Amino acid sequence: MVFKKGEGFKEGFLFLKHASNRLENSRCGIVVSQKVSKKATVRNKIKRRIRAVISQRLQEIKTGKDFILVALPGLGTDGFCEIEETIKKLLKKANLL
Fold first, then answer.
1. I want to staple 91 with a disulfide (CB 3.0 to 4.6 A). Which of 18, 19, 95, 96 is the partner?
2. How far out from the chain centre does Cα 75 lie?
3. In which element (H, E) is residue 94 found?
4. What number of helices (H) and strands (E) belong to the chain?
5. 11, 95 in Cβ contact below 8 A?
Protein backbone atom coordinates (compact mmCIF):
# COMPACT_ATOMS: atom_id res chain seq x y z
CA MET A 1 0.00 0.00 0.00
CA VAL A 2 2.82 2.39 0.83
CA PHE A 3 4.56 1.80 -2.51
CA LYS A 4 1.34 2.42 -4.46
CA LYS A 5 -0.16 5.38 -2.61
CA GLY A 6 2.72 6.79 -0.60
CA GLU A 7 4.58 10.03 -1.11
CA GLY A 8 8.29 9.66 -1.94
CA PHE A 9 11.45 11.59 -1.10
CA LYS A 10 15.06 11.00 -2.14
CA GLU A 11 18.22 12.08 -0.38
CA GLY A 12 21.67 10.76 -1.26
CA PHE A 13 21.50 6.99 -1.67
CA LEU A 14 18.22 6.55 0.23
CA PHE A 15 14.63 6.78 -0.91
CA LEU A 16 11.73 7.14 1.56
CA LYS A 17 8.04 6.51 0.86
CA HIS A 18 5.39 7.13 3.50
CA ALA A 19 1.65 6.88 3.93
CA SER A 20 -0.80 7.19 6.79
CA ASN A 21 -2.13 4.21 8.67
CA ARG A 22 -4.97 3.91 11.16
CA LEU A 23 -2.80 2.62 13.97
CA GLU A 24 -1.50 4.29 17.11
CA ASN A 25 2.10 3.58 16.18
CA SER A 26 4.35 3.99 13.16
CA ARG A 27 5.86 1.13 11.20
CA CYS A 28 9.04 1.02 9.16
CA GLY A 29 10.21 -1.27 6.39
CA ILE A 30 13.73 -1.50 4.99
CA VAL A 31 14.57 -2.64 1.46
CA VAL A 32 18.14 -3.35 0.37
CA SER A 33 18.21 -5.12 -2.97
CA GLN A 34 20.99 -7.02 -4.69
CA LYS A 35 21.57 -3.94 -6.85
CA VAL A 36 23.18 -2.32 -3.80
CA SER A 37 25.58 -5.23 -3.27
CA LYS A 38 25.73 -8.84 -4.37
CA LYS A 39 27.11 -9.80 -0.94
CA ALA A 40 24.49 -10.59 1.69
CA THR A 41 26.83 -9.51 4.49
CA VAL A 42 27.06 -5.99 3.05
CA ARG A 43 23.28 -5.78 2.59
CA ASN A 44 22.70 -6.99 6.16
CA LYS A 45 25.21 -4.44 7.49
CA ILE A 46 23.32 -1.65 5.73
CA LYS A 47 20.01 -2.91 7.15
CA ARG A 48 21.47 -3.05 10.66
CA ARG A 49 22.76 0.52 10.38
CA ILE A 50 19.40 1.82 9.11
CA ARG A 51 17.54 -0.12 11.82
CA ALA A 52 19.83 1.37 14.51
CA VAL A 53 19.16 4.93 13.34
CA ILE A 54 15.40 4.37 13.17
CA SER A 55 15.30 2.80 16.63
CA GLN A 56 17.14 5.83 18.05
CA ARG A 57 14.65 8.23 16.47
CA LEU A 58 11.49 6.16 16.97
CA GLN A 59 10.22 8.36 19.81
CA GLU A 60 10.53 11.49 17.62
CA ILE A 61 8.69 10.05 14.60
CA LYS A 62 5.03 10.99 14.32
CA THR A 63 2.53 8.25 15.08
CA GLY A 64 0.11 6.78 12.55
CA LYS A 65 2.59 6.52 9.67
CA ASP A 66 3.94 3.65 7.59
CA PHE A 67 7.20 4.30 5.82
CA ILE A 68 9.69 2.38 3.75
CA LEU A 69 13.38 3.16 3.36
CA VAL A 70 14.86 1.87 0.11
CA ALA A 71 18.64 1.73 -0.20
CA LEU A 72 19.98 2.71 -3.61
CA PRO A 73 23.26 1.51 -5.18
CA GLY A 74 26.19 3.36 -3.61
CA LEU A 75 24.98 3.25 -0.02
CA GLY A 76 27.38 0.44 0.83
CA THR A 77 30.30 2.87 0.85
CA ASP A 78 28.69 5.28 3.34
CA GLY A 79 29.52 5.08 7.03
CA PHE A 80 27.10 5.13 9.95
CA CYS A 81 27.28 8.92 10.42
CA GLU A 82 26.46 9.61 6.76
CA ILE A 83 23.52 7.21 6.86
CA GLU A 84 22.28 8.80 10.07
CA GLU A 85 22.42 12.32 8.58
CA THR A 86 20.69 11.18 5.38
CA ILE A 87 17.84 9.53 7.31
CA LYS A 88 17.46 12.61 9.51
CA LYS A 89 17.18 14.84 6.41
CA LEU A 90 14.68 12.45 4.79
CA LEU A 91 12.46 12.32 7.88
CA LYS A 92 12.43 16.13 8.07
CA LYS A 93 11.66 16.43 4.33
CA ALA A 94 8.76 13.99 4.72
CA ASN A 95 7.55 15.92 7.79
CA LEU A 96 7.74 12.78 9.95
CA LEU A 97 9.75 14.41 12.75
1. 96
2. 12
3. none
4. 3, 4
5. no
Question: pLDDT at position 76, please?
Answer: 85
Domain spans of the chain, in order of start: 2-93
Overall pTM surpassing 0.85 (yes/no): yes
Structural contact between residues 46 and 76, judged by C-beta atoms closer than 8 angstroms: yes
Half-sphere exposure of residue 73, counting CA atoms within 13 Å on the CB side? 4
Q: Hey, which CATH number is domain 2-93, 3.30.230.10, 3.40.50.1000, 3.90.180.10, 3.40.50.2000? A: 3.30.230.10
pLDDT digit string, tens, across residues 12-70: 999 999 999 999 999 999 999 999 999 999 999 999 999 999 999 988 999 999 999 99
